[in-house]
Design a protein that fits this description.
Two copies of one chain form a homodimer. With 398 residues, chain A is α/β, with parallel strands linked by helices. Chain A contains 14 helices and 14 strands. Chains A and B meet through helix 5, helix 6, strand 8, helix 7 and helix 13 of A and helix 5, helix 6, strand 8, helix 7 and helix 12 of B. Strand 14 of chain A pairs parallel with strand 8 of chain B, so a sheet runs across the interface.
């Protein structure tokens, strides 16, 4: 393993990595650091080609010491698809989708879970707990089951039915709370305190980012060790955008990609857009968003623990932040299914709506390589589709 | 393209491939034949490594002339996962799952659809129709949308809600029939006759098998151009088992794998087991199964058009056929989720139950390499999971 230490991006304090740890003393999330020179000397791009098409092909850039601790369901190397029919209609010459619906548990949460749970196993954690709006719980419960780690998952009572079921079937301890995810988070915090469990809440442990960063590694490999011009990312907790930025910086430091960085776009829902507001005001952190509500429940995060890291990635790459209304989200989702055949989640659809707006504004140029990141399959969001289907008798003709 | 012609496996009549065609004159499905010597001279195993991780990496063994006609959503190269925790419990030393849940539209139907629709596009088909119990319709509607081909999908009124929605969002013409899939099939047949549409029913066109055969190509590549000892396949229409057998024979003829063939096992539900009955009686074709019923609705096929091909593949590989009760299916599904973290479909779960039975019987030996083929994600089968989750107040403690 090439991990050297953990580092606080806020106060710069460093920590030894071979210990069970949550946040920095200052309350900020911890970041994993590697000896990138050694990584570059140990593996070549060519070496990757004969490895399986999972995110573990980048094992030298992942924080697991012993491969026997890797808990994998075959996740990663999700398709990068050209969206030529949609692109032609909207005026893009090079529009792509990175489709994170094609992954175990049906959402990109699997990336954080495979790395987070593998590392938890390696460090000897026997029980972890987390609050979830649904999809993260589904992923972490699955990987914990595979690891033989007990998981305790708490979700709001209005969490989607499919998430309850996917967690329940793994044998996880699952609870509903008559409240919000913040209430679930408080119950988790009390239980962690009381029983000594590990808290796997977003960014409260250092390894979920490492899983999410593999989206950036894959994009670089899929573009032939180059980067696109723009990446649009649906931003709730923002772990993915933080991870993609980190991945590309690491590849630069290794000399695997050049100086160019893609402009990173944080896409939020109009009903919960704290990062957008902070970016518009030129600030480095966001304020708590009161009364958050959007049908894209995966990005309903009123105040992200890593907001300063998200904003930093946006500023450093000359990116931007933009919000999308729910009706634009649904329209984009439908249009994509009709033109490209992809049934994607509302969070992913928001990135297509955002790309269109930014093209119209001139912020994106028609010939640029643009990647919209879809974070999950529409199959987990059946209620986003209206159905009114005619019923025939067997003797009827079309 | 390396296709030479189409061939009837029953009466051996041959057909020119560059035409729109359905069945042989004798009523049997048509099979695609290639100049395998030329394929072997045109591509090497090494060439594949730098191609994307989709089933189109095997383009020389697929029936599309011009790559611009390929309609892809990034399907294929699904994970092959070791099932070590389940294996240890049951007594397998080398148990694997090929996970076809990790694919666009969430089931292996995407393989037949990507190849079938690409070829339909190439041949200039503008409208196709098909009856479906659900998942095939979901896949074909998606790929047709991406191809700009109009699709007309008819499913029974009791088809799962998720399938109606995934078809509807693509803009397909979708109808429910107050009857069975056989009633839907008759409506399709009348409409095809009346309007000159293409009939995409199972095995009524030659190209779906070619898509499904890529499971066999991938397994060979994933095992390092070797084959496992046993492959268990949930068998309804049986296109997959026919395809896997065809793929391995083609690879043998190309010299890419050796003489060894895996023993192919057709797994059916006790409530609909025509192939098992035929195999037990040593017959070459099956009888219509009256009163078919199982919760594994994807394999509820009372009489498959390709039954003689399925049975041939089983006999030629010294395989077998076995049926599983619905309660065994649900138990296997739950056990897999608890031990391995995978939420799979009931059809896939049946193959694990079958493997266990065959191990107990001594038909499978503990050290053999055994592949259970899971055909879809459990996310499309929420009703297979019972949920009874405690509700907490925000002030409650765990």
């Amino acid at each position: 393993m090439f991990v050297t230490h953990l580092e606080c991006p806020k106060c710069k304090k460093t920590y030894e990595s071979e210990q069970i740890i949550q946040l920095c003393e200052c309350g900020a999330p911890l970041i994993v650091r590697y000896d990138l020179k050694k990584v570059a000397a140990s593996v070549t791009k060519q070496d990757l080609l004969s490895r399986p098409a999972t995110l573990w092909r980048y094992k030298e850039l992942l924080p697991v010491r012993d491969e026997k601790n890797v808990v994998s369901l075959g996740e990663g190397m999700t398709p990068l698809c050209r969206m030529d029919r949609l692109g032609a209609k909207k005026g893009f010459k090079n529009l792509y989708m990175k489709d994170e619906g094609i992954i175990p548990t049906g959402t990109f949460k699997a990336r954080g879970a495979t790395v987070g749970v593998s590392r938890a196993k390696e460090l000897g954690i026997d029980t972890l707990a987390m609050p979830t709006n649904g999809n993260a719980g589904g992923s972490w419960a699955a990987y914990c089951a595979a690891a033989g780690i007990r998981s305790c998952i708490i979700m709001p009572q209005d969490a989607p039915d499919i998430n309850r079921r996917e967690v329940a079937i793994t044998g996880a301890d699952v609870y509903l709370v008559d409240g919000l995810i913040s209430d679930a988070g408080k119950i988790v915090a009390r239980a962690v305190q009381k029983y000594g469990w590990f808290d796997a809440s977003t960014l409260k442990e250092p390894y979920r980012i490492e899983g999410k960063k593999t989206m950036g590694l894959e994009l670089a490999e899929q573009f032939g060790w180059d980067v696109p011009d723009v990446i649009l990312y649906p931003t709730g907790g923002g772990v993915g955008i933080i991870g993609i930025y980190k991945a590309l910086r690491e590849l630069q430091e290794m000399g695997w990609i050049g100086e160019k960085m893609p402009r990173l776009v944080a896409v939020q829902a109009s009903g919960c857009a704290p990062i957008v507001k902070a970016w518009e005001e030129g600030r480095k952190e966001s304020d708590f968003w009161e009364g958050a509500h959007t049908l894209a429940f995966g990005i309903t995060v009123p105040k992200a623990l890593g907001d300063f890291l998200v904003l930093d990635a946006v500023y450093k790459t000359d990116g931007c932040a933009i919000s999308i209304d729910d009706d634009e989200v649904l329209a984009a989702q439908k249009e994509l299914a009709e033109l490209e055949g992809d049934f994607i989640c509302p969070e992913g659809a928001a990135t297509f709506a955002a790309a269109e707006k930014l093209l119209k504004k001139g912020w994106i140029r028609p010939e640029e390589k643009v990647v919209a990141l879809n974070t999950g399959t529409g199959l987990k969001y059946p209620d986003t589709v209206n159905v009114d289907i005619p019923v025939m008798a067997p003797s009827d003709d079309l």
